[in-house]
Design goal:
It is a single chain. By secondary structure, this protein is mainly alpha-helical. Helix content is 74%, strand content 3%. Helix 4 runs antiparallel to helix 9. 28% of the residues are buried.
C-alpha cells in the first residue's frame, strides 16, 4: 500500500491568521515611521540646510579628484603673500602629497596591527567563555548565565564606544584601539563558538569522559578538533570586519587611518578624503577575498 507523500498544506484559517499578523506588523511599522517623522520635524531635524544641492555638487566635484593624483602630475609652486605683497612662504604640492602618502602608509600599518592584535586577543579570550556559554555542556548554571551575559554585553557595545572609554583609561594611541577591538569582538566570537558547540556531535567527548578523561581533556580532544575549522572561519570573518572598524577608531584618538580621516574632514580636504576612502575600500575588498578563499578551503 502506497502512502501519500504530499506535504500538508496550511489551512485557510492558518493562512488568514498569518496574513493578519503581517498586516499588524506592517501597521505597527508605519505608525513607528510616522511617530519618528513627527519627532524630528518638530525639532527641525529634517532640514537639509541651505543650498544642499550646490554643496553636494561641490563636494562630489572635489571628491572626484583624489589627492594622490597630485604626485603623478606637475604642479606649480604655491606662493603665499601678505597684503603688501611680501612673500611669506612657498609650498610644493607634490612634496606635500608625497609626505601625506608616506604618513598614510604608516597609518595603514597601524590600522592593520590594531585589527590583527585585537582579533587575536579576542579569539583567545572567547574560547573559555564560549565553552562556558554552550547549553549542551555540563557547566555550572550560574557560570553559564554569567558567560552568556558577559558575551552579550561585549557584543552589544560598539567598538567606537569601547574606544572612547579606553582612551580615557590607557590614553591616546593604538593600545586603546586594540583593547576596544578585542572587547567587542570576543562577544561575537564567543557567541559563534558557543553556537558551534551546541550543534556539534559530542559523541567523541562523551567517549573520552566515559573512560576517565578530565574536563580539560574532554574539551581539548573531544570537542576542539571538530570545532577548529568553524572557529578559524569565524575568526577570519571577524578579522576582516575589524579591519574596517579599525579604520575609524582614530576618530576617537586610537591612531591609524581614522586620525587622517578626522583631519581631512575637519579641514574639508575632500581630495585627501577621497584618497583615504579608496585605500579603505581596497583594504576591505582585499581581505574579504583572502578570508573567503581561506574559509572555502577549510570547508
Amino acid at each position: 500500500m502506497m502512502q501519500d507523500c504530499t506535504a500538508p498544506t496550511p489551512s485557510f484559517k492558518n493562512m488568514s491568521l498569518i496574513r493578519k499578523r503581517w498586516w499588524m506588523l506592517l501597521g505597527f511599522y508605519i505608525v513607528a515611521v510616522w511617530a519618528a517623522l513627527n519627532l524630528l520635524s518638530a525639532d527641525g531635524g529634517l532640514s537639509m540646510g541651505r543650498q544642499p544641492w550646490k554643496n553636494l555638487t561641490k563636494t562630489f566635484t572635489e571628491l572626484s579628484s583624489p589627492s594622490f593624483l597630485t604626485v603623478l602630475q606637475e604642479q606649480p609652486l604655491k606662493e603665499f603673500r601678505s597684503d603688501d605683497g611680501t612673500l611669506l612662504r612657498v609650498e610644493d604640492p607634490q612634496k606635500e602629497e608625497r609626505d601625506f602618502l608616506s604618513g598614510m602608509w604608516r597609518a595603514t600599518l597601524v590600522t592593520l596591527a590594531i585589527a590583527t592584535i585585537g582579533t587575536a586577543l579576542a579569539a583567545l579570550i572567547a574560547i573559555p567563555f564560549g565553552v562556558m556559554a554552550a547549553q549542551n555542556l555540563p557547566t555550572f548554571a550560574p557560570l553559564r548565565r554569567f558567560a552568556q551575559g558577559f558575551l552579550n554585553v561585549c557584543r552589544s557595545i560598539h567598538t567606537l564606544v569601547f574606544g572612547l572609554f579606553l582612551v580615557g583609561i590607557v590614553g591616546l594611541g593604538p593600545m586603546a584601539g586594540i583593547l576596544a577591538v578585542a572587547l567587542h569582538s570576543m562577544g561575537t566570537i564567543g557567541k559563534l563558538f558557543a553556537e558551534a558547540i551546541e550543534t556539534t556531535d559530542l559523541g567523541p567527548a562523551y567517549a573520552i569522559r566515559s573512560v576517565g578523561g578530565s574536563r580539560l581533556q574532554t574539551v581539548a580532544w573531544g570537542i576542539v578538533p571538530s570545532l577548529l575549522p568553524t572557529w578559524i572561519s569565524s575568526v577570519l570573518y571577524i578579522w576582516e570586519f575589524n579591519i574596517r572598524d579599525s579604520t575609524v577608531l582614530g576618530l576617537v584618538g586610537a591612531g591609524g587611518l581614522g586620525l587622517l580621516l578626522s583631519e581631512s574632514l575637519a579641514l574639508f580636504q575632500w581630495g585627501r578624503l577621497a584618497t583615504l576612502l579608496i585605500l579603505i575600500v581596497a583594504l576591505v575588498w582585499t581581505f574579504d577575498a583572502i578570508s573567503r578563499r581561506v574559509r572555502m578551503a577549510l570547508n
